[in-house]
Design a protein that fits this description.
Chain B: It is found in: Mitochondrion matrix. The complex is a heterodimer of chains A (373) and B (476). Chain A is α+β, with helices and mostly antiparallel strands and 373 residues long. Chain A has a six-stranded mixed beta sheet, sandwiched between helices. A four-stranded antiparallel beta sheet of chain A has the order 12-14-15-16, covered by helices on one side. Chain A has a three-stranded mixed beta sheet with strand order 4-3-5, with helices on one face. The longest helix of chain A is centred in the N-terminal third of the chain and has 22 residues. Chain B is an alpha+beta fold. Chain B has twelve helices and 21 strands. The longest helix of chain B is centred in the C-terminal third of the chain and has 17 residues. In chain B, a hairpin with a 6-residue loop joins strand 12 and strand 13. Classes of the chains: A alpha+beta (373), B alpha+beta (476).
């Protein structure tokens, strides 16, 4: 039994090895092109991690092609509250992921292509990669006005951004990945990438908003498959390898041992939200209660995604002060998360006087607090 | 001058590899400026300034975004020290040395410069003599220096980690044949050498392009070589358990639980249990399931349990009441807002179905569907989670028969349902038949609820469920 399964592992691995070896012609121009069969953003990001951690890229470079179902991907050091409309994401069931590379926030859906160029740290060279992409696009449609800026963006018609870039450098390996807008939903893109949260102050990397355009809008005959094909062709030519794409399943532990742990880690709250650099919120809201409008001021410090300091300024005696301080005391140390705050708020109601008036005021205040998250 | 110094300390083996670290082949190739500094052994350590190495693309400055270590932590070579960012690139800086972090030269969000010190590391030179030494501090090293070291006069190529392994096992590197590039000695070579000595089987190392992580289970894609050849001789080693206790503050859901349960402790609970024959209900539900499905609603047993409970509460309203803090007044709640305990990833939540007394079973089922999908998405609102007057907990979906549920204040009663089991029972004719049996465990506040009331309520609830047709008579 054991021998069979290890033989199977061996065979699958040896397939990859053979492909790797086949791609290996000379010490500098070896290459491997792989494409993910999954559209899950976490699985695909995990593949990047896996290759970064485990593959020896001394003699070959790797191009990884992937696409995701709707997701917002923030950079390593960014603040999701600052970058996108989390409420809208939750409503529309759009995933939120934090990647390990730097840079800004992007929206992915199946109309967007992701390309990752893996090299050794020495051979890390973003400009070259982007020029390759532009060359591929021009080979496909010579009339396209596309060029690379010195901010590592690719612009269409000198004004519209069609590709953004980010990179991750480790001890011995590095990767540079970029997006390419073929036919993404621009309406959803612009609505999810607009943050409704006010009063945020943070040192997190901010995104630089840009006008975007799909290549499909410029030339309706273009599809994602055509773009992928053109890029693969160019990569294969430049690296002197076969135009051959190896499909990879990000859930397959036998080919990528340890990958499922990586996928899980990328989905944890601690990674997605907890890695947000320390930030503070100083804001307020108006509550309409019966015939009056109440002004409430809120100040909070959030570190590792948890509320470190909390201050709520309410009109006097609107709620019993003991209850207010109970709320503040409980919020301190808990996650800056609507779900957790709801649980805490509703639980606190169980142990305070059973008064309908009190309950409705409490619920109103808590609903508004939750809107901040 | 420096060469002479190194030779003089070559007899002291345990510090040899550490000093070798600062020598670099590239230092001999290129003529960079070198800084010499003397170190004298005052304490056991020797502070080395670890400089930020070249990032590439001509970048000279980066922002420090996260520290993985703090002053006083011990690090090993290749451990991650910090994360820096430059122009959309996030870079993980790893340690070049083993030692203890003595100083962080930058705080978060400060700009760090390539070639300037990042951290000070104290390299352990204790265990004896630590003579004065001239240590050559080379400029930002190239990336190859990790894998390629050279001692002056003795060309043994091996990484410091491999050297350490050899040293720990008292092996002279000169006795080993290196199989790596340029006859470099690899970890496998040391292990193979050891294997030959002890006759033990070592994990076969895949000399592949893909380097798998440390095997945790049998999912390691190792090439199966020579497994049948040698008889394994167990190498005895003391079993070291390296698990550590982990303490973390109680926050969030757990904090909420602590609050609720501490308040519940004040309530004197009494329990009452019974078994319910659900044979007829099971059949009824099978018939009604597709009907509900056509209307887009998933029908479980809960809507029946909830409605039957509400019918029972109409007869025994004390179970749908609330006792105030001072135990002076009992408030009989008009609405039957029946809570359903739900287990989510984060913990226990209890949303409630409002006004069950005026809802049909189908409406209850539909509402349950809504609460369940919101609950699993973590999007339940405060309205759904407050105002409950009575609670049912279907722990049976996970397992169990009888339990001792805890009342959720400000309520006075709770029921926990075990799993449905197929058991033999006797019918009126004295024959044995297959019955679908479920156990129920009630808990009530003995300050205002007595055992008889609870028992009668339970019997009524039981009769509705054992004979679902009887519910039709009393449905409002």
């Amino acid at each position: 039994m054991v021998l069979q399964s290890s033989l199977k592992n061996c065979l699958q691995l040896s397939c990859i090895l053979r492909t790797l070896k086949a791609g290996f012609r000379s010490t500098t121009s070896g290459g491997l092109i792989i494409q993910s069969v999954s559209n899950d953003v976490y699985q695909n990001l995990a593949v990047e991690d896996w290759i970064h951690d485990h593959m020896n890229l001394e003699n070959r470079q790797v191009l990884f092609l992937w696409r995701n179902s709707p997701a917002v991907v923030i950079g390593r050091h960014q603040n999701p509250w600052q970058e996108c409309n989390l409420r809208l994401l939750r409503q529309k069931n759009i995933k939120l992921a934090r990647r390990r590379s730097g840079g800004g926030t992007v929206y992915h859906d199946l109309g967007n292509i992701n390309l990752t160029f893996f090299t050794t740290r020495k051979k890390y060279e973003r400009m070259e990669n982007l020029k390759l992409v532009v060359k591929a696009l021009k080979a496909l449609r010579p009339q396209l006005d596309v060029h690379v800026t010195d901010r590592y963006d690719i612009l269409l018609d000198r004004q519209y951004k069609i590709s953004g870039t980010a990179a991750k450098l480790g001890r011995t390996t590095a990767y540079h990945h970029c997006t390419l807008l073929c036919n993404a939903d621009k309406f959803v893109l612009s609505s999810v990438l607009k943050s409704p949260y006010k009063g945020l102050k943070s040192n997190a990397t901010p995104s630089v908003p840009a006008s975007v355009k799909n290549l499909f809008e410029e030339d309706p005959s273009l599809t994602c498959e055509m773009l992928l094909d053109a890029i693969v062709e160019e990569y294969a030519t430049q690296h002197q390898i076969d135009h051959h794409i190896t499909l990879i399943n990000p859930a397959d532990e036998t080919v990528l041992p340890g990958i499922n742990n990586k996928t899980k880690e990328l989905q944890t709250w601690e990674w997605v939200y907890g890695k947000t650099p320390k930030f503070s919120i100083s804001t307020g809201f108006n509550m309409v209660y019966k015939d009056s409008v109440l002004d409430v001021k809120v100040d909070m410090d959030v570190k590792h995604g948890r509320i470190e300091v909390c201050n709520i300024d309410l009109p006097e005696q609107w709620l019993p002060p003991a209850l207010c301080s109970e709320l503040v005391k409980n919020l301190t140390g808990s996650k800056f998360c609507p779900n957790e705050t709801t649980t805490l708020a509703t639980t606190l109601l169980r142990v305070c006087p059973q008064d309908d008036e009190l309950h409705s005021r409490w619920n109103l205040l808590c609903e508004n607090m939750i809107m901040l998250m | 001058v420096c060469i002479h110094r190194v030779r003089s300390c070559s007899s002291i083996r345990f510090i040899k590899s550490k000093y070798v670290c600062v020598f670099d082949k590239s230092a001999l190739k290129f003529s960079h400026q070198q800084r010499l500094f003397r170190t004298s052994a005052v304490s056991c350590g020797q502070i080395v300034q670890f400089k930020l190495s070249d990032i590439g693309e001509g970048i000279t400055e980066v922002t420090v975004k996260e520290w993985y270590i703090k002053e006083g932590d011990s690090v090993s070579q290749f451990d991650s020290i910090c994360e820096v960012q430059s122009d959309k690139a996030s870079v993980t800086i790893t340690s070049r040395y083993d030692g203890i972090i003595r100083k962080l030269h930058y705080s978060l969000d400060e700009i760090a410069y390539v070639g300037k010190p990042l951290v000070d590391i104290e390299i352990d030179t204790s265990k004896g003599v630590a003579p004065e030494e001239d240590v050559v501090e080379t400029p930002p090293m190239s990336h190859e220096e990790h894998t390629h070291q050279e001692i002056k006069g003795h060309k043994t190529l091996a990484t410091p980690a491999v050297r350490r392994l050899a040293m720990e096992n008292n092996i002279k590197l000169s006795e080993i044949v290196g199989t790596g590039k340029d006859n470099r000695i690899l970890k496998e070579d040391i292990l193979n050498y050891l294997a030959k000595q002890t006759g033990a089987i070592l994990p076969p190392s895949p000399k592949a392009e893909i380097i798998p992580p440390l095997p945790k289970s049998e999912t390691v894609p190792a090439a199966p070589k020579d497994k049948a050849r040698k008889i394994p001789v167990p190498v005895s080693r003391p079993i070291v358990f390296s698990g550590k206790d982990k303490t973390e503050p109680v926050t969030g859901f757990h904090k909420a639980m602590v609050k609720t349960m501490s308040a519940a402790l004040k309530i004197p609970h009494f329990g009452y249990c019974d078994e319910i024959d659900l044979t007829q209900l099971v059949q009824l539900r099978e018939e009604l399931k597709p009907v509900a499905q056509l209307r887009g609603v998933k029908l479980s047993f809960m809507p029946f349990f909830i409605k039957a409970a509400s019918l029972g509460l109409l007869q025994y309203p004390i179970l749908n009441a609330s006792l105030d803090e001072s135990c002076q007044n009992v408030t009989y709640k008009a609405s039957h807002n029946i809570g359903v305990a739900m287990d989510t990833e984060q913990g226990l939540i209890v949303p409630n179905v409002k006004n069950v007394q005026v809802c049909s079973i189908f409406e209850i089922a539909s509402e349950l569907n809504r609460l369940q999908s919101l609950g699993s998405a973590g999007q339940l609102g405060t309205n759904d989670l407050t105002g409950g007057t009575f609670t049912l907990s279907n722990i049976g979906t996970i397992g169990g028969t009888y339990t001792k549920p805890v009342i959720l204040p400000p309520e006075v009663a709770i029921g926990a349902l075990g799993k449905i089991q197929v058991l033999p029972r006797f019918n009126e004719k004295g024959e044995v038949f297959k019955a679908q049996i479920m156990n129920v465990s009630w808990s009530a506040d003995h300050r205002i609820v007595d055992g008889a009331t609870m028992a009668r309520f339970s019997n009524l609830w039981k009769s509705y469920l054992e004979n679902p047709a009887s519910m039709l008579l009393d449905l409002k």
